[in-house]
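Figure 2 data, in text form.
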Amino acid sequence: MADKKKKPNIFKRIAQKFKDVRQELKRVIWPTKEKLIQNSAVVLVVIAVCTILLTAIGKAGGWILEKVGFYEQVIETTAISETVPSGDSSASASDSAPAESASETAPSESASAEGSSEASASETTPSES
């Protein structure tokens, strides 16, 4: 075990890595100014063409979906049932419409007044308005 080479400390190894990087960067063949400008122009043109192409595809797809009716909102309505839920109907009817008496409400409202106060307000007789 004593004949194994001991590793240098961490700071010497880091310093050696930086020296290696500097030597490698000296070997790099850097492009000329003209070549750099030419390559940059090509990259910018390709980016512009891709941007225009993808925008056109997106707009065309949106236009097609709009013409087919994909974005139209479909409003589904359901009928409110007139069934009386089981339980104490006198307590819930007085909670939902406290100001109205039985003579002022429509006959069908007494059963549906238990469910919501909006239903009792919209189903009143014309004499109230």
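Caption note: DSSP finds five helices and no strands in the chain.
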